[in-house]
Design a protein that fits this description.
Layout (H helix, E strand, L loop, with lengths): L5 E7 L4 E8 L2 E6 L13 H10 L10 E2 L5 H10 L10 H7 L8 H12 L21 H10 L3
Parallel strand pairs: 3-4
Antiparallel strand pairs: 1-2, 2-3
Helix pairs in contact: 2-4, 3-4
């Protein structure tokens, strides 16, 4: 991945909107899917090339991409656990709660922590909340649905 800091965006015909990333050095700060990109956004970034290939059907789990997470520790654990769900597989909120160290799937509060982490996910796709079939996503619902279709979910 490029060491350049900034905002990068590229239109995706698969999603019918742009994929926009915010990066600082070797870390991704955010992924979003705006109808119109930020005016300052540039289109040339190696991660956007990978995302475009993924949307075209190339398998990529983006495990090597570092995401800078500035969220509370319990939510960070949930988002980090998302990366353990393999490409083309899906889990439920209860299963993700069970998979996340320190959380109890029988606890309403812990399940709500999972739902909140998913809904406020700063980097959907890289932190694949679309693989949680009964949970919210940090991406718009039409984007999450398309990501599921890309992976055959």
């Amino acid at each position: 991945m490029s060491a350049d800091a900034g905002i990068y965006a590229r239109e995706s015909t698969v999603l019918g909107r742009h994929v926009q990333i915010g990066v600082a050095g070797e870390r991704v700060l955010a992924v979003s899917f705006p109808d119109r990109p930020d005016e300052q956004a540039e289109s040339d970034h190696s991660l956007l090339d990978r995302i475009e290939a993924y949307l075209g059907g190339e398998r990529d789990d983006f495990a090597d991409v570092t995401v800078a997470l500035t969220v509370p520790t319990d939510r960070r654990s949930v988002l980090e656990t998302l990366r353990e769900i393999p490409y083309g597989n899906a889990v439920t909120v209860e299963q993700l709660t069970r998979m996340t160290a320190g959380l109890d799937p029988e606890s309403d509060g812990d399940r709500e922590t999972v739902r909140t982490a998913l809904a406020e996910n700063p980097a959907p796709l890289l932190l694949p909340d679309h693989r949680v079939r009964d949970g919210p996503s940090g991406a718009p619902s039409d984007v999450a649905d398309q990501l599921r279709r890309v992976e055959g979910l």
